[in-house]
């Protein structure tokens, strides 16, 4: 059921009763979730809970069998393809970093800018002031300014993850979907990633899927636990951690 305007005021992302089946297996079973404009939330849950499938539905990779998926109140994402959805300003970061290893850090950001590829391809290009300013802004946000001329391939795993987040930021997304950013990171990198995402969340909406509870605690945002394709519990991390079912199916394992 499409909600009324009052419900959707300040709601950037609205999922209601979303169903996805793969050959009869119900990966999402009536998933309902909202994200406010300017909000960051964390999604947790056991393997197979449907977290990736949820991201796939939002980004148009998987089309739901049933349910509403609305962006900015009225845009029906179930009718759009992946390219249209990316164009709307929904950026996704997959778990594994996919930076251009043989390019410098700053050129990775340039390549990600709207129109950046044309600028990059032109032998006689001089970076426009706007492109330069955007690259500087992104490098400052992800705190990689000091390595801007290094090849991306020479960065640590954590730095590559931050660079890829920067490449998403270069496209001015309204919503960032970030899949397990802390996986494979050192404790120090994990802590820095939480600081980075909190900085980004000041002017973006962010959904973070994560298994690392220390990291989720650092994020200090609303947490939703999925289980068997639906929401099991939602609230602060303390509230969700105190839920017996969450302990039973996930945290206590
Ligand atoms: N393309 C597909 N075909 C068949 N089954 C699928 C497909 N994609 C996902 N599934 C199944 O749907 C269920 C939900 O998977 P999903 O990847 O969304 O879970 P998840 O919460 O992201 O798990 P993880 O934490 O392991 O990444 C799983 O049982 C998975 O095997």
Automatic annotation (TrEMBL):
Keywords of the record: ATP-binding, Nucleotide-binding, Transport
InterPro entries: AAA+_ATPase (IPR003593), ABC_AA/LPS_Transport (IPR051120), ABC_transporter-like_ATP-bd (IPR003439), ABC_transptr_urea_ATP-bd_UrtD (IPR017781), BCA_ABC_TP_C (IPR032823), P-loop_NTPase (IPR027417)
GO MF: ATP binding
PROSITE patterns: ABC_TRANSPORTER_2
Name the UniProt record assigns to this protein: Urea transport system ATP-binding protein
Highest taxon above the source species: Bacteria
Organism, as annotated: Labrys wisconsinensis
PANTHER family assigned: CONSERVED COMPONENT OF ABC TRANSPORTER FOR NATURAL AMINO ACIDS-RELATED (PTHR45772), HIGH-AFFINITY BRANCHED-CHAIN AMINO ACID TRANSPORT ATP-BINDING PROTEIN (PTHR45772:SF8)
Domain ABC transporter per the UniProt entry, residue ranges: 13-253
A Pfam match: BCA_ABC_TP_C
């Amino acid at each position: 059921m499409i909600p009324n305007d009052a419900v959707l005021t300040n709601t950037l992302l609205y999922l209601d009763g979303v169903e996805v089946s793969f050959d009869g297996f119900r990966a999402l079973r009536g998933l309902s979730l909202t994200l406010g404009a300017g909000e960051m939330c964390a999604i947790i849950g056991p393997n197979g809970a449907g977290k990736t499938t949820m991201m796939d539905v939002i980004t148009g990779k998987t089309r739901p069998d049933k349910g509403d998926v609305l962006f900015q109140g009225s845009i029906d994402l179930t009718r759009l393809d992946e390219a249209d959805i990316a164009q709307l300003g929904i950026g996704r970061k997959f778990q594994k970093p996919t930076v251009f290893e043989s390019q410098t850090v700053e050129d990775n950001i340039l390549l990600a800018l709207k129109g950046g590829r044309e600028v990059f391809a032109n032998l006689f290009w001089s970076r426009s002031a706007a492109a330069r300013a955007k690259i500087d802004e992104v490098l400052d946000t992800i705190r990689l300014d000091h390595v801007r001329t290094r090849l991306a391939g020479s960065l640590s795993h954590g730095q590559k993850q931050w660079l890829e987040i920067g490449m998403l930021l270069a496209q001015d997304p309204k919503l960032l979907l970030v899949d397990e950013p802390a996986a494979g990171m050192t404790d120090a990198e994990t802590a820095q990633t939480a600081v980075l995402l909190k900085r980004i969340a000041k002017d973006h909406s962010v959904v973070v899927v994560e298994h690392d509870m220390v990291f989720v605690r650092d994020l200090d945002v609303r947490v939703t636990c999925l289980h068997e394709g639906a929401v099991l519990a939602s609230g602060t991390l303390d509230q969700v951690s105190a839920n017996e079912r969450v302990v039973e199916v996930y945290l206590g394992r």
